[in-house]
Amino acid sequence: MRDDFKNRDFSEQEQINKTGQSIETVSDETEAPAERVDMAKETPSHQDADLKSILEENRRMLHEIKDTIQNRIEYDAVKEKAFDKLYEEMRREKEASDLLDRAIKPILSDLILLYDSMKKFESSLINNQSLGSEEAKQNFEYIMDELMEILYRQEVTLIDENLLGVFNSKLQKATKTENAESNEDDFKIISIVRSGFVWRDKVLRPQEVVVKRFFNKI
After folding, report:
1. Predicted confidence (pLDDT) per residue in 162-207, tens digit
2. Collapsing DSSP states into helix, strand and coil, what is residue 171?
3. Dmax of the chain from CA atoms?
4. Cβ contacts of residue 214 below 8 Å, gap of 6+?
5. What is the distance between the alpha carbons of residues 39 and 23, in angstroms, rounded to a whole number?
6. CATH of domain 157-218
7. Which sequence spans correspond to the domains of the chain?
8. Distance between CA atoms of 111 and 117, rounded to whole angstroms?
9. Residue 211, strand partner residues
10. In what helix (H) or strand (E) does residue 210 lie, and over which residues does it extend?
């Protein structure tokens, strides 16, 4: 009987101990969610801060990339504009050079032909001592005519050598004056010192003349 009571008491005590352990376990398990809740409350806050920091860094990098691209675009635009201006200037210079070549080459060709004619005239003077003054004059007039033809092809004409005309300041230049006896002879041309030429209705070189001037001494 006493052993039965002892065994029963031991079994009850063991059950009580187990019950206590169960209660502690339950208590621990009951307290664990609270800790997890606290940790859960703290974790999103840290995650938000990290995410915000990452977004700020990405935004900063995007601004830097945008500025770099913008600067590059502006630099390329300036460089392209400079190259376009350079190419345009080179094109204009080439066109001007081509135009000058087309204008000068015919003149040079004509002058070479004139040189040939003058060389022939020189040879005839050297080789033919019996060449008369009249024949030499004709040959010289032929060369002058050829020169005037060259000038005419370049739209250069001779200013009219009119000794009966009156001084024209637009076409002529008075290099010397002589006294006139009356007012009617004032500014009349006496002689031509050097021929004048007009090119495309513009005075290329004025005609140099000697004119009369009347000075009333009364």
Report:
1. 777 899 999 999 999 999 888 888 999 999 998 899 988 899 899 9
2. coil
3. 187
4. 179, 180, 181, 182, 183, 185, 186
5. 24
6. 2.30.22.10
7. 157-218
8. 10
9. 177, 189
10. strand 207-213
